[in-house]
Design goal:
- The protein folds into two domains: 3-110, Isoleucyl-tRNA Synthetase, Domain 1; 115-174, Roll (Ubiquitin-like (UB roll)).
- It has helices at residues 3-13, 30-45, 52-55, 64-74, 79-88, 95-98, 107-110, 137-146, 148-154, and strands at 23-24, 104-105, 115-121, 124-131, 159-165, 169-174.
- The longest helix has 16 residues, at 30-45.
- The chain is α/β, with parallel strands linked by helices.
- Helices cover 44% and strands 18% of the residues.
- It contains nine helices and six strands; from the N terminus they run αβαααααβαββααββ.
- Strand 5 and strand 6 form a beta hairpin.
- The N and C termini lie far apart (57 Å).
Amino acid sequence: MNASLVSSGVFAAVGIGAQSGRVLLAEDDRPTAERVVVVSDRLWRGHFNADPAQASESDVFAVREALEALVIMLAPFAPHVAEEMWDGLGHSGGLLAEGPRWPVADPGLAAREELEIPIQVNGKLRSRVIAAPGVSEDELRRSALADEKVRALIDGREVVKVIVVPERLVNVVIR
């Protein structure tokens, strides 16, 4: 089956339609802005294999502007697929012929207001805590050790060490 027919049908089903290359500043643009900032940063730093694993984490690309931004960001990695998708979005003449600009996002808009930090005990996920961005390692360590689920697991055991990866993860090692 023709890929452009499949993609055209999928895109038409969600009623896609808008401009490309616009600056993402509105509150409604937050999910798109987050992806643009992450993908742009990784592309410019040369981390080409990092994003495909995260691209499926969000389903906010059901709107036209987000799909167009995704296709534009996909073009350096899979140009032929991006061309087919661009055609499926209803654009004629091809992705390069129209000259869409790389989406520009406000990094402040993409910044998270709170982080969900996983807590592991001996490498196994046991709980999660909510923390503000920029939280200190000591505060994360205290939050992890104060968590009810973690306290139940470490009760009566020796805490060998607490490994804190800032703004990412806490791992409590026990014996």
